[in-house]
Write a structure and sequence with these properties.
5-stranded antiparallel β-sheet; globular; Uridine Diphospho-n-acetylenolpyruvylglucosamine Reductase, domain 3; DNA polymerase, domain 1; alpha+beta; 17 helices
Length: 467
């Protein structure tokens, strides 16, 4: 899929390569979109991948002295969802990040990548637009900061040049008088693309709305504001009648299309519905309902400090799998899933969908659960990897494995390795999860046989074994 894979050690190195490759190189961090684009032939001219995940300092979330929040280009969706700063000072973004994909996807996919992919259905663009965010782009030619409202030119189109790297996302932190939320409407509870989504931020003073920011995704070629509704709300109290009228006005801004996931007419009506829901939740102070105080991350014990170390590109992939050193001279052009199965002969990790939907290929990469089918094989260089084969301890089954057997949580068994890996990482992170947390942990894993009841029971029972 690619001819050259470079583990970059600095931003300067990245910019030099981008400038030299004249559009044939692409930066890779999470790769959750790029891998699929390469496999499907959408990106036929990309021959070099530049891995930036080893560059230090790019994964920071910070608040500066001017009240501006900064996200580095390696900040993942789970980083955002777990950040107390984002939860307190940019809640719509925290909620949107938490609703992206599943834990394994959120552990790899970055906020920067979500912005650059530029799909109007991408969840985190909507709250960032409502927050009046900007992005900083650098190249060997210099640096520029672009307001997010000016960054997009169409569906999957931006003003970003081929030799530029996004190095910062910035936006004002919400003040004490501002409150907001994010609402996503999709065809299922997890692992779903938005049919419609909205971010709403209101500045409320003395019971009246000083200003309003309402943005929508998946209803136009780019993320859009609802100016008529924003203007109407300004100066008014948030009554039921005002909410109803603002929701009607919000529809004016949208121009949805018919597609396989929903009709334009349905989306148009849902704009009104979710606007009303969002405004009502702010009025009732329930906008944070349903958002967990401790989101399930599948990070395990090491919440921080498990970032990979700087490592240079090598002719072979030198890695550690299940505590054993491996050296792969071939397989550089594959996904990590195929490298493990074909070169490593570790066939417990299964290929179900090969596009990050089923979770059968769940493994641990540097301590975090990820979908191996969406990770480039060379990312294994210098990494610590655990597969289902390495979960048992000295031939003693892991408590999750034991519970799956005793509770009959296995039928055909194809999806089972992925479920067990997700469940084991959950119990490492939280030894006593409740049912909702168990369900969140396995949102990235699909089973066509069991109906999930026995799987959930097995995880509950495994938590008791560990106790």
């Amino acid at each position: 899929m690619w001819h050259q894979y470079i583990n970059a050690t600095s931003v300067d190195e990245v910019l030099k390569i981008l400038g030299e490759k004249a559009g044939s190189a692409r930066i890779v961090a999470g790769a959750t979109d790029l891998i699929l684009e390469l496999e499907r032939g959408v990106r036929k001219n990309i021959h070099t991948l530049i891995d930036v995940t080893r560059i230090p300092g790019l994964d920071q979330i910070s608040l500066d002295e001017d009240g501006i929040i900064h996200l580095g280009p390696l900040v993942t969706h789970n980083d955002c969802a777990a950040s107390k700063l984002i939860q307190d000072k940019a809640f719509p973004l925290a909620r949107a990040a938490w609703e992206v994909g599943a834990p394994q996807i959120r552990n790899r996919g970055t906020i920067a990548g979500n912005l650059i992919t530029a799909s109007p259905a991408n969840d985190t663009i909507t709250p960032l637009a409502a927050l009046n965010a900007s992005v900083t782009l650098v190249s060997t030619r210099g640096e520029r900061t672009v307001a997010l409202k000016d960054f997009y030119t169409g569906v999957r189109k931006t003003v970003m040049q081929a030799d530029e790297m996004l190095v910062d996302i910035s936006f004002p932190a919400l003040t004490k008088t501002q409150r907001g939320t994010f609402i996503k409407l999709a065809l299922r509870r997890a692992q779903a693309i938005s049919l419609v989504n909205t971010a709403i931020i209101l500045d409320l003073k003395a019971g009246s709305i000083k200003s309003a920011s309402i943005t929508f995704g998946a209803v136009a070629p780019t993320i859009i504001h609802a100016p008529e509704a924003e203007t109407y709300l300004t100066g008014k109290k948030l009554t039921d009648d005002v909410i109803a009228q603002a929701a009607e006005l919000a529809k004016i801004a949208t121009h949805p299309i018919d597609d396989i996931r929903g009709s334009a007419a349905y989306r148009h009506e849902m704009v009104r519905v979710i606007t009303s829901r969002g405004l009502k939740s702010i009025k009732d102070k329930t906008e944070k309902n349903g958002f967990p105080s401790e989101p399930v991350l599948l990070w395990g014990k090491q919440i921080s400090g498990n970032r990979p170390q700087i490592i240079k590109t090598s002719a072979s992939i030198e890695t550690t799998i299940n505590g054993k050193k491996y050296s792969f001279a071939s397989g550089h052009e594959k996904t990590l899933l195929r490298l493990l199965r074909e070169e490593g002969e570790l066939t417990g990790t299964k290929e179900g969908c090969a596009e990050g939907e089923c979770g059968a290929c769940t493994i641990y990469l540097d301590g975090k659960a990820v979908m191996a089918c969406l990770v480039p094989a060379p990312r294994a260089h210098g990494a610590q990897i655990v597969t289902i084969e390495g979960l048992a301890d000295n031939e003693k089954l892991h408590p999750v494995q034991q519970a799956f057997i005793e509770d009959g949580a296995v039928q055909c068994g194809y999806c089972t390795p992925g479920f067990i890996m997700s469940a084991a990482k959950l119990l490492e992170e939280n030894p006593h999860p409740n049912k909702d947390e168990i369900e969140q942990a396995i949102t990235g894993n699909l089973c066509r046989c069991t109906g999930y009841y026995k799987i959930i029971q097995a995880i509950e029972d495994a938590s008791q074994i560990k106790a």
